[in-house]
Amino acid sequence: DQQVKQNSPSLSVQEGRISILNCDYTNSMFDYFLWYKKYPAEGPTFLISISSIKDKNEDGRFTVFLNKSAKHLSLHIVPSQPGDSAVYFCAASALKTSYDKVIFGPGTSLSVIP
Amino acid sequence: NAGVTQTPKFQVLKTGQSMTLQCAQDMNHNSMYWYRQDPGMGLRLIYYSASEGTTDKGEVPNGYNVSRLNKREFSLRLESAAPSQTSVYFCASRRLGDGGELFFGEGSRLTVL
Fold first, then answer.
1. Which end of chain B has less neighbouring CB within 10 Å, N or C?
2. Which residue in chain B is spatially nearest to A31 when comparing CA positions?
3. pLDDT value at residue B97
């Protein structure tokens, strides 16, 4: 059973608009969440993260929101740019425990249309 | 500034052959990971190593073995390759307490015929 879910395999957004990518998790031990961006034929690169003690973290055009009670997080990209077109992975880990696994979701392919 | 280096980048095997994917990091990270990426499945954790001398199974460990040779190196071995192991493999590392960010290599594309 997938512990990290991204239920939208793909998303298409107009340039300049907001992109919202969603992620759900099932394991209550997770206390740290990350978003990664991946271009074809490259390794994933870190985008932004959030600890479970926060409900929002912002870095430039990227904001991640965490709703612990719903076990849900979302990544907002504003404004979206064509260079943002990539696959986005949500990941979860449990930093406070010895549970050192980092589990990824299946990804959402974002297309930003000029 | 190498970061995480994986070799080889491409490999074609026949069913039943064996091979080892090598990974090395120069960031003095404690934890290292092996993932495979398949269409629609995302990145699935095969094995990880929280520190030198320790390894643990991830989500899909069957058919693989790993060795954490030292702090820098973490290898993934396929003893008897199967077509189901055709995938792109990524190695990653991180230093706990540093925000938990993983740094990835560029990937190794493996095809098993």
1. N
2. B100
3. 62
